[in-house]
Design goal:
Blueprint (H helix, E strand, L loop, with lengths): L2 H13 L11 E9 L4 E10 L4 E8 L7 E10 L4 E12 L10 E9 L6 E9 L5 E11 H21 L4 H7 L1 H7 L4 E3 L3 E6 L3 E8 L6 E7 L2 E8 L5 E6 L6 E9 L4 E9 L4 E9 L3 E8 L5
Parallel strand pairs: 9-17, 10-18
Antiparallel strand pairs: 1-2, 1-8, 2-3, 3-4, 4-5, 5-6, 5-10, 6-7, 7-8, 11-14, 11-16, 12-13, 12-15, 15-18, 16-17
Length: 302
Amino acid sequence: MNKNIIVLVSLLTVFNLFSQDRKEFDYELLGALALESNQLISYKIVFNARENGFIEGYSYTDLSGENETKSYIRGYYDVKSKNIQFKESDILYTKSEFLPEEFCFVSFKGKFKGETKKKLLEGNFTGIYDDRDTCAIGKLKLVSTKFVEKKIKKVYKKVKKISKVKKIDSVVIAELEPENYLKKFSETKIRSGEKVSVFVYTSKLKMEIWDYGKEDGDVITILKNNKPVLENYAVTKKKKSITLNLEDNNNLIKIITVNSGKLKTNTTKLILYDFRREYEVVADLEEGKEALINIVKLNVKK
């Protein structure tokens, strides 16, 4: 199969998995890392560019996969030449079981090409371990999410037309409606049985909790190292704020759905606040199931 076709298919697949930080950044692009082994890994970047060309933002690797990871990116963008370079560093969260020192950070150099509307970005990348050894080599190809969003809207219109001739389930059509479709995949989700590790630089962590979906009687219990911090709490649209005192080594947060209400799953949204950053997670859990947030306390690098 033509490589361009493979990448385009990847772009369309990736878009339905993740669309964070839509209004906060000047640039939002998604696509795939293509390794020399022909393996494709979904990838997304969001960033702002200053007048001096310095860029700062985030990358998302393996979107909605078992190794989904969010990292900082920093670099430079020359508006005139359209050349751009950036490096990943400092993991914010990951679903991977790897330790931070085992992560392969992307170092990229490339160029924006084609029409402004598409914002096509491609170039070569090198994966580098924290000790500067090379761990991967390949190509990166991204496209503006606004361009992909237009493509998805066209698909939705076609489905609506087909539905007039050949009836399609109304639930399916509702899920494909662009606004619902994008909202459904707009946050980092942690599902039943999953664990996400969050890296912080503080001894106290503020957590806000509220019902992100339809308020239908969801009840949750939150444990820290198997000790209750919030028991049988009925989640509502009103935010509940709690403060967690972190241990130096072990800070395992367990979220348990006691009652999923009228709907099949509980969609509780949590925001964790560090003194220098914040983390958004949607706990999408079935009744009686649990998910884990492993909070790793880091030392500030000197």
